[in-house]
Amino acid sequence: MRNPYIEIFTAPGAKAFSSAGFIARLPLAMITLGIVTMLSETHGEYWLAGAVAATFAFANALIAPQVSRLVDRYGQRRILIPGTIVAVSALSGLMLATHYSAPNWTLFVFAVLAGTMPSMSAFVRARWTEIYRGSSKLHTAFAFESVVDEVIFMTGPIVAIGLSVGVFPEAGPLVATMLLAFGNLLFAAQRSTEPPIHAQDISGGSSVIRLGSMQILVLTLVAIGAIFGTAEVTAVAFAEAQGDKAAAGFALSAYAAGSLIAGLAFGALKLKIPLPRQLLLAITLAALTTLPLLMVANIPTLAVVLFVAGVAVSPTIIISMALVEQLVPSSKLTEGMTWAITGIGIGMALGSSASGWVIDEFGATSGFFISMLAGLMALLTTLLGQGNLLRSARGLAAVPAE
Prior knowledge:
Layout: H1 4-7, H2 14-25, H3 31-42, H4 46-74, H5 76-99, H6 104-113, H7 120-132, H8 137-166, H9 171-188, H10 199-202, H11 212-241, H12 247-267, H13 275-288, H14 299-310, H15 313-327, H16 333-362, H17 368-384, H18 386-397
Helix pairs in contact: 2-7, 2-9, 3-4, 3-8, 3-9, 4-5, 4-6, 4-16, 5-6, 5-9, 7-8, 7-16, 8-9, 8-12, 8-15, 11-12, 11-16, 11-17, 12-14, 12-15, 13-15, 13-17, 13-18, 15-16
């Protein structure tokens, strides 16, 4: 029996860039939660921890698409290296400011500067798209990368929280920063699979976020990201209230495990349903699975409920990336994918900030009310935008490839 996941790696250089991309993306699951744990340990205030983490996520969500736009014009390597240097320097400053009890405003300044961190998930997916554009293997490649994301989010929280709680507060962000530097440089060294620069990119042009269909998709992913951000902060606060703060990493890993299993299964399917309809189904499931979060009573229950909620995550991301490939010109693919990914980042920023405030005011489990509200907003946005998404996907699909 053919294994579709093995087949995608027959392309020259695929194993090398995907492996480097795995290392480069590990910090994605460690930095935000590492900041929350680090500051909650050193300052004892979840509003500050959530706000600084949200500032980093929000800054990255706004800056990363501009970085990716430069990538589409000038190439991945030329932009990746300087972006990484700035991000690593800023994260180092954030850790030093925390360690030496610098004024709170310095934490926010360094968090903003760290937002220059390049969107490695988009870079990796852009390489797969260049290799398998127009092939059914692209769906499998996107599914594989979604599974990789979930493996990262299974291990990242455990490592980040464990280091910051068990070693010293800055240990989680420190390891994440080291992985960011090493992984990005290793990825930049994979020259043979770097997507070529399209001639029309050099002349500029408007951003893909001006497309109505992309705005609908990004708004949907903002709401989905709010669910993720709320889960991170609320899980840490809930675990601390239960007397075992480090257990939050295991609960969040259960969330990722549910997504990983769903991603593997979904990647093997060859559905004929239009992508906007698939997205609506996935978002409906995501909204429904936020409801049981309001009833958690202990860590094992939280882990089970998050595992079930995770089933909607990978399919949503796989469908969204495939939809971006249909909605934007191939010459602006990296920017389009980055907007989708950073839409999630914006939502995580809003979710973590809002849930941090709610938790400080009303208690640990109250943060999950934000998850329920975000699920409802995602569902309404996708439902109301179905017509636009269907027309745009069909329209671009009718245009010959460049």
